[in-house]
## 1
Amino acid sequence: EYKSLHTNTGFPAILNDRILKAAHGEEVDKIPIWIMRQAGRYLEEFRNLRVENEFFRICTTPRLACEVTLLPINLLPLDAAIIFSDILVIPQTMGMEVIMEKGKGPVFTHPLQTPEDINLLKIPDISTDYEPYLDAIFLTRHSLLGKVPLIGFCGGPFTLFTYMIEGQGSTVFTKSRRWIYQYPQETHRLLDMLTNILCDFLLAQICSGAQMLQIFESHAGILGPDEFEEFLLSYNRKIASFLKEKAKINPGLEAPLIIFCKDAGYALESICQTEFDIIQIDWTVPIPRARELANRYGKVLQGNLDPAALYASGDFIRQKATKMVETFGKEKYICNLGHGIYPDTDPEKLRVYLETVHSL
Ligand code: 1CP
């Protein structure tokens, strides 16, 4: 049984809880909105901080991770904070080296080449290997002073698997797709390992102060429906069941769960047939169909403006956002983009989007 570093008690009272209300399907005064990658490079304040600080050093220094998490909260009318970290900290704690290359993104120095390489991975120890990430959550939850809820996150097992095999981002993911067909058993073994780690990591995030959780399956779009079920959704189901089971035993550990399977609109109905509370969709998914399925299975929706739409004029953003919100409906809805905000977005355009949604 996991002994938590922190005990999920003694935090400041919450002042703005509209995102938690929407997550529970309750009525809200305004539509809650937060933005994936809201603490990132589109903010000058973040870029300045990055000059002096290596990316993963920010993630492992609670004081810095907290400062970066709070940046957008102090600048823009957001209804939630998301802890500053990265999905690739998990493979790092399993012994894989990841370097942030300027202009390229994260790169693994030694990606897994054959199934034998799985034997070189270590099973991390939650209370020591994850201490900085959990302390960052604990410190940030306190430092938020109850302004808005704090969201924790992780990469989904399948998406982490693809990075560990490819060594970096890709458009075709031929190495990962080859693995699932050439080495199905070993692929399952690795996905199983990752799933167990993520269950413990997410539970520890709740204990440390995370009030909602999002799983990023950013590479869900490379699978067909059968493989999606076998190599992706079944593992995420396990994570959701694990967390819901823990919350049943200890109601203090209840936290709404968000799943984002990017480019997997093809599997939306099966995603709705899980224990996740909130389904994040990208901009390729027709909203009316998403709403119909969400209602059928009692889910809340999150999304989905194309982040590129923030390059348009303020007037266009207002029109587009208004139409989008009217199509989603104002209940059982959390507003966001359809993917992370792009680094060269003008923060004032984001402000237009946020203010429009709050005014509706
Ligand atoms: O140089 C820099 O400053 C790096 C830019 C950056 C940032 C700001 C990276 C590198 N990661 C992050 C932070 C981050 N990553 C957050 C922080 C909280 C917030 O949203 O504000 C989160 C939630 C992530 C999640 C993440 N990392 C995802 C899932 C979301 C998505 O975009 O699909 C993925 C795929 C990553 C990997 C990653 N980390 C960074 C980059 C550039 C990438 C993508 C690499 C690739 O596939 O090519």
## 2
Amino acid sequence: MIFHVLTIFPEFFEGPFAHGVVKRAQDAGILEIRIHNLRDWTNDRHQTVDDRPFGGGEGMVLKPEPIFRAVESIVARAPAANPARCRVVLLSAQGRLFHQTVANQLAAENRELLLICGRYEGVDERVAEHLADDEISIGNYVLSGGELAAAVVIDTVARLLPGVLGNETSAAFDSFQDSGHGEGLLDCPHWTRPAEFRGWKVPEVLLNGNHQEIRRFRREAALEKTTRLRPDLTAASRPAPAPQLPVPQAGASPGLTAPALSPASHEPASYQPASRAEGPPQGKIEN
Ligand code: 9WO
């Protein structure tokens, strides 16, 4: 799969893809990441990519012309010269929310991906309206630009491609973080040596070699942690489809009695911060 990134900071991407799984997949020819400098598509000697916003206000806005020229040039150069072979995505805080199911779809689509990174105060809206096929946000927060978001999307999609994790049957068709502990559950906690560290002991069951007990323990631990930290992923947090028996409180009795997660649990739901987590109240994004 070929990923294109359009950015005014091409050097930004020297780091994120030079390590680990994504690096190996590039070396193996499974995927290719092509970074394009937006300034290469300017015509003036100052290589201007931005201008003042109509209507007034703070800061600058990325101009449409270099972005249109860049995208049309990159897409036309793609194999088969068929624009339908490349999905053009604008990364922005106003986009539809990125999550595992979106990543699965992008990985399974068999299309190149071109990610446009915004900067300054924003991107001329005609890019979203008339150039991009899609507008994606990686979360409910404001970044300084789309580059970090592009790196997140590429990493998430890349590891789903057949062969990247060594699994020829693509993980793209599995469920959200399929940990093997149950549909939609987050991964279970992990421990390694030493068996005792500063007085904290690794759960005994993991040391006894009884693999049936270990499987059961891991499933329960995954369920408990998901219920405690991510109640939004549990069936109990979903609105009832019809009048029914009272739904147990999320987190009230974690463990085996917790409700199974619904298959739709990869979809974003109202997020409640975990009790241990710190951070501002959820709601309006401010900067
Ligand atoms: C600023 C702002 C201030 C108050 C309320 C909402 C607000 N949204 C923004 C905003 O979206 N600023 C952008 C930040 C301007 C262009 C560069 N920025 C950006 C963020 N590019 N890409 C992202 C982004 C964020 C999350 N997921 C994907 C991309």
